[in-house]
Specification:
Layout: H1 2-18, H2 22-33, H3 38-44, H4 53-90, H5 109-123, E1 127-128, E2 134-136, H6 137-140, E3 167-169, H7 175-183, E4 188-197, E5 209-219, H8 224-239, E6 245-252, E7 255-264, E8 281-290, H9 292-297, E9 306-313, H10 314-322, H11 327-332, H12 335-338
Parallel strand pairs: 1-4
Antiparallel strand pairs: 2-3, 4-5, 5-9, 6-7, 7-8, 8-9
The structure holds 3,4-dihydroxyphenylalanine.
Length: 341
């Protein structure tokens, strides 16, 4: 029996040492320590021993059991540790690997120019208004002194929604002047940027949808000098100190007198080049003193109040601001182009 126990001990310990996974350990536990296990089988024979032999053999059997149990525990622990370190190794994060670059978007040059324009006017106490792109012809034309028969009302120029030409895509931001006069307290200082629509073919300087920024001031004793001063300040802040402007007489139905403002070409400094089509100047906006009849139609007394207004092309301004040669680049949204700003 002594030899039997010694043999069980030796076999069990070596088997446990070589066990590769928890299933194997389980099998060994059953094989040696289980109810029908080898050690149990030996203990069952204890009864056959003499009274003198029994205590010594019992003690030995207990020692073997303890040894096998101890080895089982050690083996279990070893397997768990191995599993843990394998898992840690598999989940290792190398914090020294450079991160994947995140591509940051850029502000569209037109939004960038608009942001600057807004900042300049907000700094002078103007309010920024937003208004509908689907507009009544009454506000887009009639209330701005462009009566029936005015060429800009023609179907070939304007997107109408109905046969009677009453609802349209606004062809200018100028109806925002009327909306401001109808809803705001005097004095008024507003700008109103937004989209406008005209039946134009796409080319280097035209698009059926483009953007304008309308501006308007109505107050007491407002003169053309205020208009010129404000717009010159705008030009210098947008395009840099010393930017040269010129005001040319023009005609708009809702202003009297009317003018257009040009800025000297940034490419040639006024000598004439392809960018300015040989003119030396780039047209930026239309402006003028608000026609007394336009004030009257809004219920504003032209003997007490006067005002000026302007409407500038935003694409054109952005092109001048960021030295962009072709209008189509602004709408194509090619990232290679947009990334430059
Ligand atoms: N609405 C005009 C256009 O689209 C531009 C304009 C001219 C606006 C004179 C004004 C203005 O406010 O006073 O051509």
């Amino acid at each position: 029996m002594k030899e039997q126990l010694a043999k069980i001990r030796a076999e069990a310990l070596s088997a446990l040492e070589n066990a590769r996974d928890s299933a194997a350990l389980d099998e060994l536990r059953v094989k040696y320590l289980g109810k029908k296990g080898e050690l149990t089988a030996v203990l069952k024979q204890m009864g056959k021993l003499s009274a003198e032999e029994r205590p010594a053999m019992g003690q030995l059997a207990n020692e073997v059991r303890a040894a096998v149990e101890g080895a089982l525990e050690t083996a279990t622990q070893k397997l768990e540790e191995a599993a843990l370190s394998a898992k840690l190794k598999a989940e290792t994060v190398d914090v020294t690997i450079p991160g994947r670059p995140i591509r940051l978007g850029r502000r569209h040059p037109m939004n960038a120019a608009l942001e600057e324009i807004k900042e300049i006017f907000i700094g002078m106490g103007f309010t920024v208004l937003d208004g509908p792109e689907i507009e009544l012809a009454e506000l887009n034309f009639d209330r701005l002194n462009a009566e029936e028969g005015h060429p800009s009302r023609d179907w070939s120029d304007t997107f109408y929604f109905d046969e009677d030409s009453r609802v349209m895509l606004r062809s200018q931001t100028s109806p925002m002047q009327v909306r401001a006069m109808d809803t705001m307290e005097l004095p008024i200082r507003i700008i109103a940027p937004g989209r406008v629509y005209r039946k134009d073919e796409v080319d280097a300087t035209h698009s059926p949808m483009f953007h304008q920024v309308e501006g308007m001031v109505i107050d007491k004793n407002v003169t053309m000098a205020d208009l010129k001063g404000t717009l010159n300040l705008l030009a210098e802040q947008l395009f840099g100190a010393g930017t040269v402007t010129r005001f040319r007489p023009h005609h708009f139905p809702f202003t009297e007198p009317s003018c257009e403002m040009d800025v000297q070409c940034h490419k040639c400094g006024g000598a004439g080049c392809p960018t300015c089509k040989g003119e030396g100047w780039i047209e930026l906006l239309g402006a003028g003193m608000i026609h007394p009849h336009v004030l009257e139609m809004a219920g504003i007394d032209p003997d007490k109040w006067s005002g000026w207004a302007f409407g500038m092309g935003l694409e054109r301004t952005a092109m001048r601001r960021f030295k962009i040669a072709d209008l189509r680049l602004i709408f194509e949204n090619d990232v290679r182009f947009l990334e430059q700003f």
